[in-house]
Amino acid sequence: MKTIGIAVVGFGTIGSGVVKILQDLAPLIEKRTGIYPELRWVVDKDITSPRSVKVEKAKLTTDYKEALADPSVEVVVELVGGKGFAYTLIEESLKGGKHVVTANKALLAERGQKLFMLAKEMKKSLLFEASVGGGIPILRTISHSLVGDRIRALYAIVNGTTNYVLTQMALNKSSLEDALKEAQRKGFAEADPTLDMNGDDAAHKLAILATLAFHTELDFSHVHYEGIEHIALEDILHAERMGYTVKLLAIGKRDEDNRLELRVHPTLVPKDNQLAFVHYEYNAILVESEYLGTSMYYGKGAGSHPTATAVVADIMAIAEHSREGNFELFRPYQRLEVKSMDEITSRYYIRFHVLDQTGVLAQIASIFGKYGISIASVLQPEQSETTSVPLIMTTHEARERNMRQAMEEISRLSFIQDKVMMIRIMDGH
Amino acid sequence: MKTIGIAVVGFGTIGSGVVKILQDLAPLIEKRTGIYPELRWVVDKDITSPRSVKVEKAKLTTDYKEALADPSVEVVVELVGGKGFAYTLIEESLKGGKHVVTANKALLAERGQKLFMLAKEMKKSLLFEASVGGGIPILRTISHSLVGDRIRALYAIVNGTTNYVLTQMALNKSSLEDALKEAQRKGFAEADPTLDMNGDDAAHKLAILATLAFHTELDFSHVHYEGIEHIALEDILHAERMGYTVKLLAIGKRDEDNRLELRVHPTLVPKDNQLAFVHYEYNAILVESEYLGTSMYYGKGAGSHPTATAVVADIMAIAEHSREGNFELFRPYQRLEVKSMDEITSRYYIRFHVLDQTGVLAQIASIFGKYGISIASVLQPEQSETTSVPLIMTTHEARERNMRQAMEEISRLSFIQDKVMMIRIMDGH
């Protein structure tokens, strides 16, 4: 019997899922692949609290070195998270001759480069399918299935918390605050949801996606990101009326000169676009490539069991193909330039709250004109008597730098109440 | 420089696409993988007609044996189609020590078993990602990404012609005939579209999907299939009004006792289901599995370039992982029983044309009652004065055998005009 020995480090949500799948399906997996995935160790600082799965005592340890010292362990699964101990663990595992599987997007996006070089040097695999899109096999698809294609752009919904909140707002007309509470109640948002809500999580995932899609090294600091914290229900309803739905998109684009755009921000997605139908905790990655055209990959982007399927797939890829260290996802061969946000172009949705007086539209339009921004539509919803009324505009394609300058100037006009809201519109669709 | 030598046999639509990608991207592919895919031979009976790509004369031959005799050829790409010569070609290639990549679903579904056994014996890979869903990486996903999961059901739109026709009917209110002509004009239907329209093509693809998804050997004759030839615009419009869209679905399901349903037929898909948004020539495969949950894979299911990306991905999978014959998709380890259609259960849409007289509904309802079929809804659209009026019913879950018997009995009633139309409703959604 061929086996592959596994140590799972981090006995939390995903770790429990991996243990569960191995306990339930190891004999089936052996039938399918000829290799039995054998759980040797489960490592955690806390090995006494009850979990959703039971692990025999002899396999539990608080000391990861015990697992690393076991020669029967071929794969170390890093599920502790964070950028400190996780780094050390992966480094020591590779140096100790183990393959590594991880779901740690923040670590890979910010400190991955060195670890991948180390893996290469040690002729070991460092796989990370679970780091983006949970159980959606997007990294394999980009690296292996599209090896004979050229990706032009990615549009991805890769954060379940924000997608849950935005969906809840749109479908149930909830405020952002209420929608977030609902997400927390249902387990789709953390107690402290900051890193999800502000786009940080999606930005890390975009960095990983873009590295593979564009075969490039890149610095996480080059990814521009904005969150959904300031999206008001009002904006979602205006957008709906205009045929759009608001999504937090992670966008990676390569232009003709091989310069990249890497940005995460709320985006107006046309309602007939596939991404508009990705609701609640679901994720999806839409890929535009030269030969395949548009393709999309959809599924649960988080959660114990979905994410665990990706971890197990990585373990078995190693078992089947990486004994010689040859199953790799990460293999950039260039360093493409990333454009600054000032350089990008987009169409824009802008929502003002203005005093209800004459000449407002003319003054705004004249500032847009000055910056070469042409207006595509104006919407002034009828409103009950209040001093401040909404005014919604969309623009044709404009340069972000011009837009930013125009917005600064408009914001200083005396009839502008509140902060002006600007949301980019998904391009080319 | 590591290379992999390739012979493309069949210089038609897909063959030209493969040649095009290799000509355009081979240096890029080498950068990505470290292996240069080198086109050595293009074989076709006709090597003189102009193609969309140019191949130097020295690489063109009408004699496949010339390509097989070349020791620098490691992979033979079979793109001739059909079940005769293609079989011989694959057999001789494997026996000659070549790996094989094919897009030939009919051959694999009906005569694949022996070829896979031969490949195994020869320690060569026989890959076929392009046979289902064109460039959508669905076979890899099922075999490798879901290796640690258990698939319960597949719902797939895998025939571009019929999906084009149904979309055209629904969105432009065309008759089936006009929609088909439009599809032919646009190149999405063949001059003789029989094997697409009658479900045969989708059935072959379902057989391949099910073999991988359920890890089972199966006979193509166990796949039940019906086409869309009899779908009337009227049915599509009634369905729309009831919140459904009509799709030709390929359905594979495994029940608790590991018995399978394998069926291709027009199906009412709820409009909020992801599959309802798969329009025109696009394909999508929705997978329900125990751990990942619902996932979906969407893209172009046919055409020269999309399909060629899958062929090139297979070639490079062989180059990277199969020098030892170990990158396999096909590895069934059981033979599951397939249920007869009489045994399945479903909800049903039924459309009658009846004489506009009293007592009609009562008589129909009484026959349904006799067979234990309970009615979920009745719709009798207002109609201009004609002697025959439509009557649309949906049922709750019922057994197909009972349904068939009830329909036979109802069809004999004197007030029934025309043939009764029955369309199954997508379950569990």
From TrEMBL, chains A, B:
Catalytic residues (UniProt): K205
InterPro entries: ACT-like_dom_sf (IPR045865), ACT_dom (IPR002912), Asp/hSer_DH_NAD-bd (IPR005106), HDH (IPR016204), HDH_cat (IPR001342), HDH_CS (IPR019811), NAD(P)-bd_dom_sf (IPR036291)
A molecular function (GO) term: homoserine dehydrogenase activity
EC number: 1.1.1.3
Keywords from the named record: Amino-acid biosynthesis, Methionine biosynthesis, NADP, Oxidoreductase, Threonine biosynthesis
Pathway membership, UniProt: Amino-acid biosynthesis; L-threonine biosynthesis; L-threonine from L-aspartate: step 3/5; Amino-acid biosynthesis; L-methionine biosynthesis via de novo pathway; L-homoserine from L-aspartate: step 3/3
Catalytic activity: L-homoserine + NADP(+) = L-aspartate 4-semialdehyde + NADPH + H(+)
Domain ACT: residue ranges: 349-424
Positions of L-homoserine binding: E190
Residue sites binding NADPH per the record: K105
Gene3D superfamilies: 3.30.70.260, Dihydrodipicolinate Reductase, domain 2, NAD(P)-binding Rossmann-like Domain
PROSITE patterns the UniProt entry points to: ACT, HOMOSER_DHGENASE
One GO process term, biological-process aspect: threonine biosynthetic process
Family from the record: Belongs to the homoserine dehydrogenase family.
NCBIfam families to which the protein is assigned, alphabetical: PRK06349.1
Name of the protein in question: Homoserine dehydrogenase
Source species of the chain: Thermospira aquatica
